[in-house]
Amino acid sequence: MVRIVIAVVITLIFTAAWAGDYEDGVAAMERKDYATALVKFRSAAQQGYKEAQYNLGVMYDKGEGVAQDYKEAVRWYLLAAKQGVADAQYNLGVMYDEGEGVAQDYKEAVRWYLLAAAQGKDKAQYNLGLMFDDGKGVAQDYKEAVRWYLLAAKQGLAKAQYNLALKYDKGQGVAQDYKEAVRWYQMAAKQGLEKAQYNLALKYDKGQGEAQDYKEAVRWYRLAAQQGLADAQYNLALMYDKGQGVAQDYKEAVRWYLLAARQGNAQAQHNLGVMYGLGQGVLQDYTRAHMWFNIAAIAGDKNSVKGRDLVASKMTSQQIEQAQRMARECMASNFTKCD
């Protein structure tokens, strides 16, 4: 009995010491003293302290205080994951999912995501939704995808709310329900997710799930456009072009068309050709109209072929040659030199 008591006391002493190392490591991380954190976490991790094993894995994963080493990250994540640390199980799932530090293995990724998801890890639930959605590591199953998206969405994960909205929007794994789609788009959009903002705008624009409301559509297009989403920039330009939800403003339309065009949006490129051809929001310029029509035509927009040929009939051969040169330079610069 005495021996047992002594062994317990010794265990408690060492456990307290390892916990102290872990806490010192956390404090060091907070002040960005990665070298000290590494020493402290390693000391505790080598003695089986699961939280330290996880944090050591994170340091190797991110290259904080050590050279980035995915294999070493996997080693420490695995030790912590086997002890039930949900964050470690999730991160290990990500490593197998992306093939970092291990051979890519979707089935193994699913196995670890399931363990973390069962503990309520929202990102693991979301990733499981993706795996069932895409049929990676499991048979494709939209209903199962919806189930996992819903669990993560209820915890407030914007990406899960957006993907759940998509399922209601398309009727995949659930009955098609635009109102329910709008409800989940709104939740994700309010968290700043640009794709949700854009899709919510589309619903107001088309009157699906909500009464048609161009002003509300413009509001959500603008929020997504300001985050750089090309489709939102294009649609916002259309609203200014047509005067829907806002006062008609060709200059503002051109501004947003240009932002979308520079990201390779062929419809925006075509419409810029129209604006320059008609002199709407800009000075009439057949050379620039030809340039944008040509760029859009090369991208596969058939209407732009007609537009290019139409303005070409009003241009000299020298102007056409200049427009073609401008188009080549614009595309070669990845749309940074199109002025």
Radius of gyration: 28 Å
* Broad shape: elongated
Distance between the termini: 87 Å
Relative strand content: under 5%
Share in helix: over 70%
Strand tally: 0
Query: How many H/I helical runs?
Result: 18
Order of helices and strands: HHHHHHHHHHHHHHHHHH
Largest sheet: none
Structural class: mainly alpha
Mean pLDDT over all positions: 93
Low-confidence stretches: 4-16
Short description:
This protein has 339 residues and is mostly helical. It is built from 18 helices and no strands.
In terms of topology, how is this protein built?
Layout: H1 2-30, H2 34-45, H3 50-62, H4 70-82, H5 86-98, H6 106-118, H7 122-134, H8 142-154, H9 158-170, H10 178-190, H11 194-206, H12 214-226, H13 230-242, H14 250-261, H15 266-278, H16 286-298, H17 302-312, H18 317-332
Helix pairs in contact: 1-2, 2-3, 3-4, 4-5, 5-6, 6-7, 7-8, 8-9, 9-10, 10-11, 11-12, 12-13, 13-14, 14-15, 15-16, 15-17, 16-17, 16-18
